[in-house]
């Protein structure tokens, strides 16, 4: 009875829930099989193994994250888009810590190329940054700056790493303002035609 309706999508959705409840590192085939009331082997008809499950979970969570970011930045540009992007990123990371952790794993480049979630993430992120007049290789450098800043801040905040009396939201707002200034005055490596 528990096996009825079992599919790769259901398993990945359950993995996302488990990741938020118990942590991404605790998402295992055994834990999921237990959740569905089946043996581990039953999951292998839907997945190739743990690495496949974690990759699918990363893409699933990445899709959720970019949906949230996309809705937040719609119709915005420049500093407003950056603040909306940053706010949506942070909210997702704090609300879904296990799913967010899944988005940080390294995914095989061949899977990234065929992933609509990853393509959409690149389109939205690079689109926002192009409003600052950036082109390659500056775009890649700017994406790395944003990702490392957002990730570092969210990881520290989630771990309770900010002990000073200063309001965490106020510090976040100041960090986003500093990123806006950095993007506005980016030390360009390429020649713009504008």
Automatic annotation (TrEMBL):
Give TM segment ranges: none
Report the Gene3D superfamilies cross-referenced here: Homeodomain-like, Tetracycline Repressor, domain 2
Show where the HTH tetR-type domain sits. 5-65
> Which UniProt keywords are listed?
DNA-binding, Transcription, Transcription regulation
Under Gene Ontology molecular function, one entry of this record is: DNA binding
Q: Which residues bind DNA?
A: 28-47
Source superkingdom = Bacteria
Look up keyword Plastid and say if it applies.
no
The protein in question is named Transcriptional regulator
């Amino acid at each position: 009875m528990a096996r009825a309706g079992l599919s790769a999508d259901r398993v990945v959705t359950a993995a996302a829930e488990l990741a938020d409840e118990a942590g991404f590192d605790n998402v295992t085939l055994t834990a999921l099989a237990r959740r569905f009331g089946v043996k581990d082997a039953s999951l292998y008809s839907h997945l190739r193994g743990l690495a496949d499950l974690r990759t699918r979970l990363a893409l699933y969570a990445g899709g959720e994250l970019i949906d949230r970011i996309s809705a937040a930045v719609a119709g915005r540009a420049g500093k407003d888009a950056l603040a909306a992007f940053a706010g949506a990123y942070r909210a997702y990371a704090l609300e879904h810590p296990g799913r967010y952790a899944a988005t940080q794993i390294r995914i095989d480049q061949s899977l990234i190329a065929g992933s609509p979630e990853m393509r959409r993430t690149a389109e939205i992120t690079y689109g926002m940054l192009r409003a600052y007049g950036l082109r390659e290789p500056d775009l890649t450098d700017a994406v790395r700056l944003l990702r490392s800043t957002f990730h570092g801040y969210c990881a520290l905040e989630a771990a309770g790493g900010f002990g000073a009396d200063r309001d965490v939201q106020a510090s976040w707002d100041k960090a986003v303002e500093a990123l806006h200034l950095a993007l506005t005055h980016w030390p360009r490596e390429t020649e713009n035609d504008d």
